[in-house]
Design a protein that fits this description.
Blueprint (H helix, E strand, L loop, with lengths): L6 E6 L3 H14 L3 E7 H9 L6 E7 L1 H10 L9 E8 L2 E7 L2 H7 L5 H21 L1
């Protein structure tokens, strides 16, 4: 799977439910908690009456990094938390994360660069760990 201009991820040979559980664990190992959770399939069914593949959006937050980022740019809360998605794809699942380094481009505050770089590295490790264990 190639990197998108706004995120990165991997296809993993895991059923959707397993992929969700594993990425939660892996995010925790990298210091992220899940603050928000949106079950897109459920929302589409309830609000639109349509079927959609299993698809979950996790709002992941690493409190020390978020604190540093907010100290550098108070309005950065508009771009937090880091979204991580898991969805069913073929006989496996896709796990993707938004690229935190994009906020540096959007905001234009150089003080955010090392924070965003560290967040990106942690998110990449979390996804790579799940892919390696699959």
């Amino acid at each position: 799977m190639e990197q998108k201009r706004y995120g990165f991820g991997k296809w993993v040979a895991l059923a959707y439910e397993q992929a969700v559980e594993r990425i939660r664990q892996s995010l925790q190992q990298e210091g992220f908690g899940v603050l928000t959770e949106i079950d897109v399939r459920k929302v589409m069914k309830e609000k639109r009456g349509v079927e959609f593949r299993p698809y979950l959006i996790l709002g992941a937050c690493n409190p020390p990094l978020a604190h540093q980022a907010l100290e550098a740019e108070l309005d950065l809360g508009l771009l937090l938390p880091c979204n991580v998605v898991v969805y069913a794809e073929g006989n496996g699942s896709v796990i993707e994360a938004m690229d935190p380094e994009l906020m540096v481009q959007v905001v234009g505050n150089p003080a955010l660069e090392p924070i965003a770089r560290e967040a990106k590295q942690r998110l990449q490790r979390a996804i790579e760990r799940v892919a390696a264990e699959a």
